[in-house]
Amino acid sequence: MSSQSRIRVAIIGAGPVGSLCACFLAEHGYDITVYESRKDIRLMVTSVGRSINLALSERGVKALRFVGLDNVVIEELTEPMSGRMIHANDGKLFSIPYDVLQNKCLYSVSRKELNKLLLTKLEKYSNIKLKFSHKLINVNFTNGSLSFENSENQSKRIVKHDLIIGCDGAHSTLRTHMSHLPMFNFSQNYIDHSYMEIILKYDGNNKTLISNHLHIWPRGTFMLIALPNKDKSWTCTLFMPNKNFSSLLDPSKKDAIHSFFVEYFKDFTEFISIDDLIDQIKSIKPQPLISIKCNPYHYSDKFLLMGDAAHAIVPFFGQGMNAGFEDCTVLNQLLEEYDHDLKMIIKSFSVKRIRDAEAISDMAFYNYIEMRDLVTRRTFLWRKKIDNVLFKLFPEVWIPLYNSVTFTSIPYSQCKLQSEWQDKVLLKIFLFFILLLTSIFVLCILQLIK
Description:
Helix content is 42%, strand content 24%. It is α/β, with parallel strands linked by helices. A hairpin with a 3-residue loop joins strand 18 and strand 19.
């Protein structure tokens, strides 16, 4: 641990990214205070906020490895997923492995359980202070002061730090204040789709889904997915256009939920009682899906955004948390590269991460189309077969897009460019064979004429 204790850092948000970022900086000896607007989730019965299960992959594992938590998280909190299990309309099942070369897998993990582990980890550092129920209410960008309100006793306090890092999620308070600054570009996009979570509880008697897979019921414009949990339950999420949810939840249609699931997800109803399914759906509201882009991620040499606060993405590539954890890895690399020159580090972070974050944001939107529709098409399945063959023959040159994003640390923007190059190569090969077959056909016709 180097001696950086004279530099005081404030981290806004004690979610997974904020907690991990605090651990990273603590390893370098910074004096850190983490401010969280919520109460300690370890003391709460349920976690408030986004609850979609997370898919931990290589980028996230690499970041956890730096603070010695990779094996603990994988062994104690996760369930492996080696591929997608597709549930077709006709009830047939077929598996699409994630990695045919090395059999690598994703790890399904509860956001709350992972966050609890990270909070416990950061409390072990003597140079980290953790303050719950502290809501950021104002930011003074001139003198670098932050104003907080304690929700437990309504007291207010103003503090100053040398570096302020906003890890407070897609609805970041720090980013909201930064959006009023000149030359700060910001956009948010709510897509016309929402999600609703359904829990398949395990009681030892009911049927269980095939393990070691992410299950998908693709239905063209919408889909249902299921991720395994450590306790043998499954966290299922229904993604649909908002108009479909309105129809599903229309109180005038008494049997709408039952009819909908029997029509589109008949085999799913074998794993859950209709009464339980209806009760769960009626007790919650569909949650919106938002995409956030901003540029730059910093202001002066004192304020920096990371994780969803900087680049919230839709969850369809399973990279939201992994991208946020990779932010911590990149920040750590820059700390060493620039020998803790914060002015250079903060500016370089924006330059280095914006292009990659925007690339994975675009790819996540595409992956929704792939998951809900393309996975059942023959053209997609043939493309996967071709990709796998080329991957086996040329593993250093031809890495399929999903593999490069999920199982490597290749920058997201490079993964995207590589995929576009692969598409062009395959198109040229296809056109070559079409031309070749056409030429052979023409020659045969000419021979017959003679």
